[in-house]
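Technical note accompanying the year-one report. For the benefit of new consortium partners, we illustrate the data format agreed upon in the data management plan: each record pairs a sequence with a structure-token string. No post-processing was applied to the example shown here.
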Amino acid sequence: MMYHRPALHAEETPENRGEILLRLVRYLRPYWKSVLASVFFILISAGAQAAGPLLIGQAVDQFIAANDPAGLGRTALLLAGVYTVGMFAMRFQIYWMSWSGQQVLADLRMQVMRQIHRLSLQNLEGEEAGDLMSRLVNDIEMINAFLSQGLVQTLGSLFALVGIVIAMLALNLPLALVTMAIIPVMILATGFFSRLARRAFRRTRETIGDVSAELEEELSGVKTAQAFNRSDFNIRRFEERNAANRDANVTANAVTSAFSPAMDLLSTLDTAAVAGFGGYLAVQGQVSVGVVVAFLQYVQNFFRPIQTVTQIWTSAQSAFAAAERVFELLDQEPAVKDLPRAADLPTVRGEVVFEDVSFGYEDGQPVLQGITLKAQPGETIALVGPTGAGKSTLVSLLLRLYDVESGRILVDGYDIRQMTQHSLRSQMGVVTQDPFLFSGTVMENIRYGRLDAGDEAVYAAARAANAHDFIERLPGGYQTQVGERGGMLSQGQRQLITIARALLADPRILILDEATASVDTRTEALIQRALERLLEGRTSFVIAHRLSTVKHADQVLVLDGGRIVQRGTHEELLSSGGLYADLYRRLQFDPAQTVQPEPAAADAP
């Protein structure tokens, strides 16, 4: 069954935003002590902001009007102390919340990485590596900025606002009501800008994912692009994606930059209203000059947290868009997963049975139909057929990279869908046509499939794979860094190391996409001898490209159109004619020929 990625909603509802915010906040739960410490310092900072204007108004009425320098000096010192405490409280609230945000950042990245490894190939085949990297790095960094900075500023501003409102109401109710009369207009303006910002920032997250995906592809394929003279075309294609990301960010910045002046205008209007009404009340003798001065301070302090909250809420749309992309990945269920009562597969002898197996990547387009075969322990099964016949798909089903649509696959009589994936794959080894090495040393790459192996076991596997001699000649021997994807080594050297890795893991069942093309004759001979040792005593499924493997296989299965159309030994099939004999001649398997087989013999599902 073809897996389809869920599409993002064109317009996220407020309920979804609330759910996303609540889900983000839940990640702070393990670090509640540091969050509580941050809230404690937020309360102190809010109290300092509320107390400051009161002290200023008091100084005007009691000490400036009375010409009392001593009292004014004491109030000034007290005011300096209040603001100093507020400053240090703000510093500590930011520190503890930032610390919590960094912990959440690390947790989220680990959760995404575990999810990527948890998902099956069927889930990930529609994803671009660069886009996944963007979710792992860029999107999570955007979430971190909100949790460690935006959230603490929002909480601090809300607490400060509550303190300021209480102080204003206690100081003078009419002036407080005039000050807060502007709030409905601010709420409407914030809602308007938030809707614009939400769409704009979602677009920025999507386009930066496209840029990352394109960049990753270009870095991986730069050699091919140069060889086929496609550099200019690829540069233009990247330029288009880069320009789309630029335009999306310009649009988002235009929205946020228009929001701040709008809030400044409302703040100025409200200040003028308070100054005019407060001045009128002072002239009428209903309030003192100190109260008016204090209210003018409160107006500035009143708008500062509101502006902070609204600006953060607007820019938080970027964090919500990023979180939406991250949660979309985290919420995916693996297309292939263990059953609730799946058992561990015991150590197997290596009998493999396909019973009437059918499978397709898309509905109504079967790739394999009615596959039935039996491999006895230790047998070598060669898979032969034209491109698209289903050879790679067949071995992928054995590995449970996909699950069969009908029929079943048995290993030593156990239905592999009833077994855990880990216990199944731990008894299988894979050597691919394109050998993949991880960044690290030669030793680490050979030990990859058996981490508890000692150095002597690694050396023995390397000798059996005919890799020991060339490894010893490397600058650092077994501690030589192989580079990204093993780029410091030749194709043949990488292949010998992957064979050594498989030998060290000692699997009972081996899947081999035989690869001796693009190497010199001497290296090819080394690989062939290493493969013979690797195949010995193991049940092996070999996607065959070379005559030597086909000739010595216990069974040769010829696939065409997703069906097994011929089966038998090499000699039996050659004498009976049909597709195998035709492939043998057309792909130039004949040992009398000197031309190598065409790449078309390799399967592409």
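Partners are asked to follow this layout when depositing records. Residues 86 and 140 are 31 Å apart (CA to CA).
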